[in-house]
């Protein structure tokens, strides 16, 4: 099993290759906000563990094993974003929150969240109910704050 840090690399390498057709050390360093020398070190480790093949002058290719786990990690990230969006987390918090939780849930929990997201997507009226519950609470909180003129969208 890859470590959380390896997961971040595999996730981003998969995404870069998917979007641009290739992943350079400099692109990975930028995506993960780390020093290129850290990328080189991790890429060598991922090569040793057979997730990818790294050749200094030809770049980096994911192995079938690397592709499979990379896709799974990207899908997991997207699923968790959908989940937080559905339960009403504000857009500016979603990405960082997913980065914070994605490595710490079991695949069992991920599967359960997947069904929950599917359930809500099939029943959008339930999403509306959930939103209404949150908004009603926000309105009553605003009122008890003596801020009764505050309007809630
Ligand atoms: Mn992520």
Automatic annotation (TrEMBL):
SMART domains recorded: HTH_DTXR
Top-level taxon of the source organism: Bacteria
GO cellular component, one term: cytoplasm
Manganese as UniProt keyword: yes
Molecular function GO labels: DNA binding; DNA-binding transcription factor activity; manganese ion binding; protein dimerization activity
Record-linked InterPro entries: DtxR_MntR_Metal-Reg (IPR050536), Fe_dep_repressor (IPR001367), Fe_dep_repressor_sf (IPR036421), HTH_DTXR (IPR022687), HTH_tscrpt_reg_MntR (IPR022897), Iron_dep_repressor (IPR022689), WH-like_DNA-bd_sf (IPR036388), WH_DNA-bd_sf (IPR036390)
Statement: the UniProt record of this protein carries the keyword Lyase: no
Gene Ontology BP terms: intracellular manganese ion homeostasis
Activity control mechanisms: DNA binding is strongly activated by Mn(2+).
Database matches in HAMAP family: HTH_MntR
Protein name in UniProt: HTH-type transcriptional regulator MntR
Organism: Polycladomyces abyssicola
Organism taxonomic ancestry: Bacteria, Bacillati, Bacillota, Bacilli, Bacillales
Gene name of the encoded protein: mntR
